[in-house]
Write a structure and sequence with these properties.
UDP N-Acetylglucosamine Acyltransferase, domain 1; about 350 residues; single chain; 7 helices; 3 domains; 10-stranded parallel beta sheet
């Protein structure tokens, strides 16, 4: 990497990511704010990190107007941004992301890949070792399928899709544009549908719907998305999943929702837009969660969440109520002792009779 600060400003000023730059510098690397030094570009958004940039003197800093004057003597160039976090995401993605399309290791299409003759593979795609692509699969441009990816028959894959090792896309499922799926995840595995007979033996109900993943979705490692019983399980545009998430059959997840590690949503539930679920969230089936809901502290959702807001705990309650209940819970032992003392004072005869027995 050898990029001038003028180039970075030109690239990101037009879309409002950067406002201006004071000074000039050549950038060889994008580094952590704690360690960045000569030749490095760093991102400063908290006063806790001021001491690092003052000490290490990186070549360029992206920061807010609030901190610009404090660090202008510590770097050759200082970029101003209204949203340093967003600038970090955009600039690092542009200049320092992994090269997903590197063909030096395996070439464009590895000879061990198995591709059905009905599939047209665009010249822009990269296909790694032991990839399997089934009959009538439709592939977009600039896709990358790493080792052991399996795409079953009749699936549709959009443009700029990256499937990491051991990802499986089930038959007939649809993947939008710019989707990134991390290793080991399954899109379109069979939903969990069974019926019992008089002897309580379980009988499988075939799940013949599909999963639709819309544009700009990111799926973490070892996630599972179950195909619908009849229609579709749908993940709408911009949704981000952490690792180890499970979305059951017929679920809909609204745009720009974030589900972090271990999140589970049971069948036929509808999750709104811009919902945030913290780690190990659990949502029961056939529920509705409104837009702009935040679920915290191992939330257990057992009924509809009808209004935007912050909720926590199991059973789920508004955050204010949760904090009050936690305050009481921490003092339960002391409260029990007080109640016992009051009971002895109010019922001395009852205590004496128990001693005689």
């Amino acid at each position: 990497m050898n990029i001038h600060t003028d180039e970075i400003l030109k690239r990101f000023q037009a879309e409002g990511i950067l406002e201006s730059v004071q000074g000039k510098a050549e950038i060889q690397n994008i580094a952590a704010v704690e360690t960045g030094s000569k030749g490095d570009l760093v991102f400063l958004d908290k006063k806790d990190f001021l001491e690092f940039v003052i000490k290490n003197r990186p070549s360029a800093i992206v920061t807010s107007a609030e901190f610009a004057d404090k660090v202008k003597e510590s770097a050759d160039a200082v970029f101003i941004s209204k949203n340093v976090g967003l600038a970090h995401a955009k600039i690092k993605t542009e200049y320092a992301d992994r090269n997903w399309r590197d063909i030096e290791e395996w070439g464009k299409i590895h000879p061990s890949a198995v591709i059905h003759p009905s599939v047209k593979v665009p010249e822009s795609c990269v296909i790694g070792p032991k990839v399997v692509i089934g009959k009538n699969v439709k592939l977009g441009e600039n896709c990358v399928f790493q080792a052991n990816v399996v795409i079953e028959r009749d699936a549709v894959i959009g443009n700029d899709v990256i499937l990491c090792p051991n990802v499986m896309i089930g038959w007939g499922c649809e993947i939008g544009n710019r989707v990134l799926i991390q290793p080991g995840s399954v899109v379109g595995g069979e939903g969990f549908g069974f019926s019992t007979d008089a002897d309580r033996h379980y009988h499988r109900i075939p799940q013949t719907g599909i999963v639709v993943i819309e544009d700009d979705v990111r799926i973490g490692t070892n996630c599972c998305f179950d195909r619908a019983a009849y229609s579709e399980t749908r993940i709408k545009a911009g949704v981000k999943f952490d690792n180890l998430c499970h979305i059951a059959h017929n679920v809909t997840v609204g745009e720009d929702t974030v589900i972090t590690a271990g999140g589970i949503v049971a069948g036929s539930t509808k999750v709104g837009k811009r919902v945030i679920m913290s780690g190990q969230a659990g949502v029961l089936d056939h529920l509705t969660i409104a837009d702009d809901v935040i679920l915290l502290i191992r939330p257990g959702v057992m009924s509809d969440v009808k209004k935007p807001g912050v909720y926590a705990g199991t059973p789920l309650m508004p955050m204010g109520d949760f904090m009050k209940s936690q305050s009481v819970f921490r003092n339960l032992a002391e409260l029990k002792m007080k109640v016992n003392r009051l009971d002895k004072q109010l019922n001395p005869k009852e205590e004496n009779s128990q001693k005689k027995i």
